[in-house]
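Example 3.
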Amino acid sequence: MNPSQFRNQSLGLQSIKIIASNEWRAFKHNKGLLLSMLMQPLITYGLLVMSLKENLSTVNYGGLTIPYNQYALTGVLTFFMTTQMSQAMYRATVDKEYGLLAIKFTNGVQPWHYITGMSFFPMIGLVFQSTILLILGLFTGGIYNIGLLLLSFLILLISLEFWSSLGIIISTRISSYEQRDVVMTLLFSPVSYAAPTLYVFNSHSPIIIKILSAINPLSYQLKAIRTVAFGIFNWADVLIAVMITLLILIVAQLILKRMPLSLSER
Amino acid sequence: MINVDKLTIGYKNIIVVADLNFELQKGHFVALIGSNGAGKSTLINTLIGINKPLKGEVTWNIDSNKKNIFNDVGFNPQSQLIDWYTSVFDNVLQGPLLAGYKLGESKQFTIDALKLLDLYDLRSKAVDHISGGQQQRVQIAREIARKPKLYILDEPTTGLDIETAESLFNYLKKEVQTGATVLTSSHDLTLLEDYATQVLFINEHEQKYFGPLNTFLDEGISLREKYLKERSSK
């Protein structure tokens, strides 16, 4: 057998568990992260949204009149998603830079097993931050309907897979921590703010905002989350969000499958 | 186990070593020797498929019941192969898990390997909180915990103290006696001479020798003396 074929000999679905359990251990080993993750819901919802609520008491969304903080809470949830993408990027960069990715693939971990397993780290972070936000929302009347909000978490997790995959794809193209940090800074703020996260875009919005929003996957994911969270259930919105994730998974699979393997880049 | 036929290795169009021909057989303990930059690491990385051959073929033929043949290999590169986010224990545990072992036996193999490399007391430590030599031991422990049929070790003794290096090679010798195969590069020629059965010597972009150690040393001199003699006669 030619050794270049090793990566095609699949270790099977167990490799998702192997990768995910390693991510769980990495998360547990970095408990300090929890503190920084705790701050984001406190600041964005506890301070920013609750302050804006004093000026914007309600918003009209999908034919409903919703208290501003209930609307914005769903937007804050998606902030966490893009923040957690940075965790996927951190982890994937370590893997690539130190040759762990090459070893995992050579041992038979398939690209989509890897992507799915690596999403576990950001997923735990997202669940943690969402739980904090949920508690804050419960105490401040920020939840439209608890059952629907919990249901919308499914869309949130599906959408997280999109951002994790994107983070992993970007990691394959960067070769230093400096580059990674620049990419993250250039990507995250525009993505989070060029989407109707904390505000409602309408026909009077500036054209540049409309264009950025139209090409921003987060806009469509927000629609899908809100259609469930506010009980509108426009299934086309949900389908679009799911399709976006499937599309990026396919792209990630193709890129990782063809990616040349290398050991430590140091 | 591995057959190398008219293999030329290198990067892009830069030839590092041309026309390599040898066969790694079960039960061999092969010392890969050569100067810095001779192409030892390039060869090792080509053998496992990380580097593509410029010419020629590498063919693996291991009697393996694993899902992936590489699961039966313990590979330690010269570079650092460490997950800096996890502990000593978790780094080692990844080895047997990726080799396809169940969690319970992986944990047991991890404990055994940590004890062998005198790392057990450091098992909960972050890998960036231990010394360079200890990090090297973590990498080796991870490969030992895989219970491989074939060890491919690139400079495994770098950063190790004499006792640990001896202990590692003693372990590898026992593994060879039970049917495993070892290919290892090292600049510690005295240690290699004590344990290796075969020598693969590359120098000046060529394979100078592959065969039994005692034939290589037929003039009754040490491996170190022979190596220096060969190097000076270039």
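The first strand of chain A starts at residue 58 and ends at 61. Chain A has one domain: 11-197+209-258.
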